[in-house]
Amino acid sequence: MKKPVIAIDGYSSTGKSSISKIIADKLGLIHMDTGALYRGVTWFALQNCLDKEGKIDLNTLFSSLDQIHLEFKNNDGTLVLYLNNTDISKEIRTNEVSDNVSLVAKQKEVRDYYCSLSVL
Fold first, then answer.
1. What pTM value is reported for the model?
2. Would you call 42 exposed, middle or buried from its count of C-beta atoms within 10 A (0-12, 13-18, 19+)?
């Protein structure tokens, strides 16, 4: 059974995540934090898609997107992100991920890939 997708957009620090967590809880849905999703893709890229200079090779990342299985699970009220069945919730909060996430998140190929998955 397909579950609904509810998107909430707005300015930074206006309570989008707070209200979406409440809505997800009330409706029995999983809250999907897109910021964490892009951090998960970035962490994968940092582990698997670096060039000789240690920078993310975007073409390698694009060709690897189908190898990245991200899943959010609710663990007693805490959102946990799994990459290929491994909890990476702490790993995605490192400075290295923070320094690279905007590069990954702004890529059309990455956004299109994950948008298409979220509505299936």
1. 0.80
2. buried
